[in-house]
């Protein structure tokens, strides 16, 4: 079942975020970054074909399941968020799924950075009035503290991805976060912490993006205050 994109959803998410005692990570050894969870409208069936050249983008990355091919298809419908497929040409975290975002510039707030990166990466300009609230900070293995900023897009919007950073932008229905097979947890020998996997389309979204999306489901949609900052990333995301 898709989730209606309406004022009731906007109020629900905003209320859940406002009532949450947010976890803040203060670690001077890590750089600060922000990501944008942009809530938009979408139509069922508008994404039956993945617009990205997946075979080229996948870059030989082994897929975790023989039934997965890496394509992000049949995920749109109703209230959705914007998910990016990063280019394989980037120096760090290339060819990975990501929310629009990046490190803070000197003097920037997390909201300023999220709005700026959203504009630079996917060509969407929103104002401070679009902010619904913040999720918990997530410290990454690669040396960042990520603050997720939840934004109300106010409609479908029209992403225009920057070709230097983003291969394609997808509207992923929020109902996809509540799939019965989601979330998944696995163990790895390199860590005692569970690795989180969020099934979306024909791929799995890992932390940090997967952890952020899981808290968007638990807190933003369901009002659950469960923490996600201790969920582990796969080893390929540690660098």
UniProtKB/TrEMBL annotation:
InterPro entries: CoAse, Nudix_hydrolase, NUDIX_hydrolase-like_dom_sf, NUDIX_hydrolase_CS, NUDIX_hydrolase_dom. Its cofactor is Mg(2+); Mn(2+). Pfam families: NUDIX. Residues 30-194 form the Nudix hydrolase domain. It comes from the Bacteria. Keywords: Hydrolase, Magnesium, Manganese, Metal-binding. One of its GO terms (molecular function) is coenzyme A diphosphatase activity. The keyword Mitochondrion does not apply. Belongs to the Nudix hydrolase family. This is NUDIX hydrolase. It comes from Mycolicibacterium llatzerense. The lineage of its organism: Bacteria, Bacillati, Actinomycetota, Actinomycetes, Mycobacteriales.
């Amino acid at each position: 079942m898709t989730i209606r994109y309406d004022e009731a959803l906007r109020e629900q998410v905003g209320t859940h975020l406002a009532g949450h005692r947010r976890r803040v990570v203060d670690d001077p050894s890590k750089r600060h970054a922000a990501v944008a969870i942009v809530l938009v409208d979408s139509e069922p069936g508008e994404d039956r074909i993945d617009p990205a050249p997946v075979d080229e983008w996948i870059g030989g990355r082994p897929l975790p399941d023989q039934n997965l091919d890496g394509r992000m298809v049949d995920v749109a419908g109703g209230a959705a968020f914007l998910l990016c497929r990063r280019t394989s040409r980037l120096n760090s975290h290339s060819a990975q799924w990501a929310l629009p975002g990046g490190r803070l510039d000197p003097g920037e707030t997390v909201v300023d950075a999220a709005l700026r990166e959203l504009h630079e990466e996917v060509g969407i300009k929103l104002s401070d009035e679009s902010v619904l609230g913040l999720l918990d900070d997530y410290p990454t293995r690669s040396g960042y503290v990520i603050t997720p900023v939840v934004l109300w897009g106010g409609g479908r919007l029209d992403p225009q991805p920057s070709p230097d950073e983003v291969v394609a932008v997808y509207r992923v229905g929020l109902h996809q976060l509540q799939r019965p097979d989601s979330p998944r947890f696995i163990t790895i020998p390199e860590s005692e912490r569970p690795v989180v996997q969020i099934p979306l389309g024909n791929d799995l979204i890992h932390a940090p993006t997967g952890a952020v999306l899981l808290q968007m489901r638990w807190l933003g949609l369901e009002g659950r205050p469960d923490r996600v900052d201790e969920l582990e990333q796969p080893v390929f995301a540690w660098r």
